[in-house]
């Protein structure tokens, strides 16, 4: 889980999409929009995990904390952003064993 503040999400949403939580009835409504359209700041945080660590974008969760300490779960739709860089593949067990032997 990646922790961010509502202020961060507002800043990134404003820069990427001209969208802030003040334009919505509630923080949860704002977060729902940010889930469908993840701003660049969120993509930048997720990138090392997806690209370098091989984490499936669908497995990433964020926790957003507002100024009052309230927390919200945020699960941005990152798959389309990283579709060309992340794709699950099945590795032949013999090849996987050979790789493990080389790396050991």
Would you tell me the structural class of the helices and strands?
Answer: alpha+beta
Task: State the helicity in percent bands.
Answer: 40-55%
Gyration radius, in Å: 17 Å
Which regions contain 5 or more consecutive residues with pLDDT less than 50?
none
Question: How many individual β-strands?
Answer: 3
Overall pLDDT score: 87
* Apparent shape: elongated
Alpha-carbon distance between the termini? 30 Å
How would you sum up the major sheet? 3 strands, mixed
Number of helices: 4
- The neighbouring-strand order within the major sheet is 1-2-3
What share of the residues does DSSP label as strand, in percent?
5-15%
Write a compact overview of the structure shown.
The chain is an alpha+beta fold. The protein has helices at 6-17, 27-36, 40-52, 93-103, and strands at residues 2-5, 62-65, 71-74. It has one domain.
């Amino acid at each position: 889980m990646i922790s961010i503040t509502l202020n961060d999400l507002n800043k990134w949403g404003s820069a990427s999409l001209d969208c802030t939580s003040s334009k919505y009835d509630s923080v949860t409504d704002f977060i729902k929009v940010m889930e469908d359209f993840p701003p660049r700041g969120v993509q930048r945080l997720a990138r090392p995990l997806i690209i370098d660590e091989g984490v499936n974008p669908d497995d990433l969760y964020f926790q957003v904390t507002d100024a009052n300490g309230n927390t919200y779960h945020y699960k941005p739709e990152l798959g389309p952003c990283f579709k060309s860089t992340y794709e699950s593949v099945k590795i032949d067990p013999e090849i996987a064993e050979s790789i493990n032997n080389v790396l050991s």
